[in-house]
Specification:
This protein has one domain: Dihydrofolate Reductase, subunit A. The protein contains seven helices and eleven strands. The strands form two sheets. The protein has a nine-stranded mixed sheet with strand order 5-6-4-3-7-1-8-11-10. The longest helix has 13 residues. GO terms for molecular function: 5-amino-6-(5-phosphoribosylamino)uracil reductase activity.
C-alpha cells in the first residue's frame, strides 16, 4: 500500500516559515559570516528552529552528541523521520544544503531534487543519494513514490516547492509546528496557494512547552 505525501515545517506565529530570502552563497559561505544580512537570516532561522536542537533524537541523528530532551517534541521529531521513505525538495533548498550539510547529509534516504539542472545522482555517506529530476514536480513525485514503497514521501521544501505540490492537490497531509516567535517579514508558507482549490481538516493538536504541532489533512474543493 502506498504511503502518504506530506510536509512538516516550523512556522512563526505571524505566518512565516523562513526569513526574507538571502542568496545561499551569502548565508553559507565564509564571507557570509561577516555579512549583516546573512547574520540576521541565521539568527532568525535559529530562533524559529530553536525547539528542535535540544531534542535527543535530533542531536543523536545529526551526530551533535549524546543525550538531550525527551518528551512530546522528541517523539515528534523521531516519528517524522521514521515515516519518511523519500524526500523531495526544490533547487534552492538543495543549493543551500549542499553548502551547509555535513558530509553525511541528514536524510538517510533517497532525495529527489526538482531542478532544471542536469546532474548525475550524488551519493553521500549514511544512505542519502540525491537524484535530479528535470521534468517537473509530478515526475519527481512519481519517482519518489516508487522509491518509498509503503513509507511516506516528505516534501522537504522550500516554500515554493511545497506551494506547488499543495496547489496541484498532491499533498495528503501536513504538519505546521507553530513557534512562539514573530518575524514581521519573510517567506510565507501559503503565499502562492489558491485557497479556492484546497480544503483542510484539522486532525490533531499537540502542544509542548516550546511549540504547538498542528496536523491537517487536505482535499480538493
Amino acid at each position: 500500500m502506498a504511503g502518504k505525501v506530506f510536509f512538516s515545517v516550523t512556522m512563526s506565529l505571524d505566518g512565516f516559515m523562513a526569513p526574507e530570502a538571502v542568496p545561499v552563497e551569502d548565508v553559507f559561505s565564509p564571507k557570509g559570516q561577516h555579512d549583516p544580512r546573512a547574520q540576521r537570516w541565521l539568527a532568525k532561522w535559529s530562533e524559529l528552529q530553536a525547539w528542535v536542537f535540544p531534542q535527543r533524537w535530533f542531536r543523536e541523528s545529526a551526530k551533535l552528541g549524546e543525550g538531550g530532551e525527551e518528551g512530546l517534541d522528541n517523539d515528534f521529531v523521531r516519528a517524522t523521520y521514521e515515516r519518511t521513505g523519500v524526500s523531495v525538495m526544490g533547487k534552492r533548498m538543495f543549493e543551500a544544503g549542499e553548502l551547509a550539510w555535513p558530509e553525511e547529509a541528514p536524510f538517510h534516504t533517497p532525495v529527489f531534487v526538482v531542478t532544471h539542472t542536469r546532474r548525475d545522482p550524488w551519493e553521500r555517506p549514511g544512505g542519502t543519494t540525491f537524484h535530479f529530476v528535470n521534468d517537473g514536480i509530478e515526475s519527481a513525485l512519481l519517482k519518489a513514490r516508487e522509491a518509498a514503497g509503503d513509507r511516506d514521501v516528505r516534501i522537504a521544501g522550500g516554500a515554493e516547492t511545497i506551494q506547488q505540490y499543495l496547489d496541484a492537490g498532491l499533498v495528503d497531509e501536513f504538519v505546521v509546528t507553530l513557534a512562539p516567535v514573530l518575524f514581521g517579514t519573510g517567506i510565507r508558507l501559503f503565499d502562492r496557494v489558491d485557497p479556492d482549490r484546497l480544503a483542510l481538516e484539522q486532525t490533531r493538536v499537540e502542544a509542548s512547552s516550546r511549540v504547538t504541532h498542528l496536523t491537517y489533512t487536505t482535499a480538493k474543493r
